[in-house]
Amino acid sequence: MESKSKPSARSRLFLALRIVTSFLLLGVLLWRLNWGMFVQLARRSDWRLLIWPILCFWGGFLFSALRWQNILRDVGLPLRLKSVLMVNLEGFFWNNFLPSTIGGDGYRFVKIDRQYRSQRAGVFASVFLDRAYGYITVVGMHLLVVPFLFSLLRKQKILMGSDFAIGMGVFALAFFWKARGAWAKRLGNWMRNVRWLRGLYGRLERLMIAMAMTTRRATGLGVLYSAAFVVLNGVALWFYLQVAGETLPFMPVLYASTLAGVVGVLPLSVNGIGLTEAVLVLALAPAGASREAVLLAAFLLRGINMLMALPGGLLYLFEPWSVV
Fold first, then answer.
1. Considering the entire predicted model, what is its pTM?
2. Which of 199, 306, 269, 297 is nearest to 26 (CA)?
3. At what angle do helices 120-145 and 103-115 cross, to 10 degrees?
4. How many CB atoms lie within 10 A of CB 103?
């Protein structure tokens, strides 16, 4: 009984730390905010422009559904696009209203597993690969943007350090993939003996196995749909900044959007609250964006996303085959 209670206690402690981190980050951001300027920006905002980021959201949502449908077909689960869209929308609701960035993934697994219990491994692989392709693509596109903004970023030690850490992480993952034979076995044996690396190695191993079983066509389409999703996220942020009265070139905005995407999923805060906003403020500062305009745009982005997630909750409540 004692061994079962320890993980629960650790989970509660970890959640409490993430909540505290979110409150601290938001507190610092709001404390340093020029409230007079923030209110003026909100009053002068052209709210009609919100139609464009909303359209970008639904366009990205469609590409996300197409990516998962493509992966599902590759593992032998030919779901209709309508069904994938509905399950994704319900999962998006749980992503926004559970204290986790992957709560929706767990829901999607349970929902599809209920229909295909005999193919549980394929269901798990599809959800795992859907998340992996999205994250790998946003990391790759972020690193592709960095050289174009090097002159703008080179004096920003925090940003350059973050980009260097991301690049080293990609290099380590690529090495792990390339040396899947003897080196991977030795590395795996070492990581299994280190308690805090054991879980990471398990996830890496499952990812490698799942990716090795995926066809090239499915991989290519997964990356293509993910790239469209990432670009639309950047365009949406660019429009949110326009609403807040900040006109910037697209490339720095795409850099900020992808960096927020890379960092925001890390389990350091609750659903990236506070962390995403802080990253956007930090990443857009070299381009000359004011903290007030960036925070207004970030709050609009989060608020609209939560509003767009509400239909998923209604689907969950009233759909006859909802998971209980």
1. 0.84
2. 269
3. 150
4. 17
| Tens digit of each residue's pLDDT (9 = 90 or more) over 263-273 | 987 777 877 88
Domain limits of the chain? 2-29+53-318
The count of C-alpha atoms lying within 13 angstroms of the C-alpha of 226, restricted to the half-sphere facing its C-beta, is 25
Number of neighbours of residue 38 by Cβ within 10 angstroms: 19
Question: The tokens of 63 are what?
Answer: 């590409």
Q: Which residue has the higher pLDDT, 128 or 84?
A: 84
Round to whole Å and give the CA distance between 185 and 18: 34
Residues 103, 94: contact at Cβ < 8 Å? Answer: yes
Please tell me the distance from the alpha carbon of residue 126 to that of residue 65, in angstroms, as a whole number.
12
Phi, psi values for residue 116, rounded to 5° = -130, 60
- Count of helix runs (H) and strand runs (E) in the chain: 14, 0
Answer for the pair 295, 33: CB distance below 8 angstroms, yes or no.
yes
Q: 91 and 313 in contact (C-beta within 8 Å)?
A: no
Amino acid type, 175: F
Burial label, 260 (beta-carbon count in 10 A; 0-12, 13-18, 19+):
buried
The amino acid that residue 147 corresponds to is P
Q: How far apart are CA 72 and CA 84, in angstroms?
A: 9
**Which one-letter DSSP state was computed for residue 269?**
S
* Amino acid identity, position 258: T
